[in-house]
């Protein structure tokens, strides 16, 4: 069973065999998962346009669009393929098309549950790696976006590079020279003369949301992320 306090995960079962689908729903529900169902490829695409489950169990032999046609259209969600096909080439092609795992029918439900756990854990680790957090600040390293106390703040590429460096070294004072050197690959337009203005603009954007100055100037040395007041 899922541990108390953990966020309930949602799994979409895309399977036209009612017996297998019902069995999977019962097993997953007992394990503490929320379950969505689709019985055809077309229905699956509609379901996924309205919901974003944490994982998809995908059968290949579906009415309408086949599983092979549905798979490339599923983005940002781990997919475990369930199929009676046993040919190694089929498995390789599906893994290359975006599936994270492949189980041949008939399968052992305990093994399937273990593989689901592994893929959900990997997805969580990947999600955590995409963001850097420090107090009120959350920086998305994929979209290069910032949220301050849950509110989106637009950053220039240079502002993003500066803040990312400070957030990755929250207790360290970083000199102007080190700042310029370490962000130069991402922002070659930033110079010693313009750095002060970039930091000033960044400060104002964040202050406008929360009233807090998140960047501390250490005179004669450089800058660091402001330390939270205890």
Describe the structure.
This protein has helices spanning 18-30, 41-50, 67-70, 88-96, 109-129, 157-168, 176-183, 192-210; strands spanning 10-14, 34-38, 55-59, 79-83, 101-104, 131-134, 137-140, 145-148, 151-153, 174-175, 215-218, 222-225. By secondary structure, it is an alpha/beta fold. The chain folds into two domains: 10-129, Response regulator (Rossmann fold), CATH 3.40.50; 131-225, Winged helix-like DNA-binding domain superfamily/Winged helix DNA-binding domain (Arc Repressor Mutant, subunit A). The chain has a five-stranded parallel sheet with strand order 2-1-3-4-5, with helices on both faces. It has a four-stranded antiparallel sheet with strand order 6-7-8-9. A three-stranded antiparallel sheet has the order 10-12-11. Helix 6 packs across helix 8. The chain is elongated.
Helix-strand layout with pairing:
Elements: E1 10-14, H1 18-30, E2 34-38, H2 41-50, E3 55-59, H3 67-70, E4 79-83, H4 88-96, E5 101-104, H5 109-129, E6 131-134, E7 137-140, E8 145-148, E9 151-153, H6 157-168, E10 174-175, H7 176-183, H8 192-210, E11 215-218, E12 222-225
Parallel strand pairs: 1-2, 1-3, 3-4, 4-5
Antiparallel strand pairs: 6-7, 7-8, 8-9, 10-12, 11-12
Helix pairs in contact: 6-8
């Amino acid at each position: 069973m899922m541990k108390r306090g953990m966020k309930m995960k949602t799994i979409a079962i895309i399977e036209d065999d009612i017996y297998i689908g019902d069995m999977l729903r019962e097993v997953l529900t007992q394990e503490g998962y929320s379950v969505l169902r689709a019985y055809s490829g077309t229905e699956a695409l509609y379901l996924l346009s309205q919901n974003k489950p944490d994982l998809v169990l995908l059968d290949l032999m579906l009415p309408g669009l086949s599983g092979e046609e549905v798979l490339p259209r599923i983005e940002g969600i781990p997919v475990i393929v369930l199929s009676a096909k046993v040919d190694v080439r089929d498995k390789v092609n599906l893994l290359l098309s975006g599936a994270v795992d492949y189980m041949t029918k008939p399968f052992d439900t305990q093994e399937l549950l273990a593989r689901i756990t592994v893929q959900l854990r990997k997805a969580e680790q990947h999600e955590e790696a995409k963001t850097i957090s420090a107090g009120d600040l959350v920086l998305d390293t994929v979209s290069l976006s910032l949220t301050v106390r849950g509110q989106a703040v637009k950053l220039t590429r240079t502002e993003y590079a500066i803040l990312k460096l400070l957030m990755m070294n929250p207790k360290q004072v970083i000199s102007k020279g080190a700042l310029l050197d370490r962000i130069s690959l991402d922002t070659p337009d930033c110079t010693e003369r313009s750095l002060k203005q970039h930091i000033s603009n960044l400060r104002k954007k964040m202050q406008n949301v929360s009233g807090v100055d998140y960047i501390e100037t250490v005179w004669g040395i450089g800058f660091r992320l402001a330390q939270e007041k205890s």
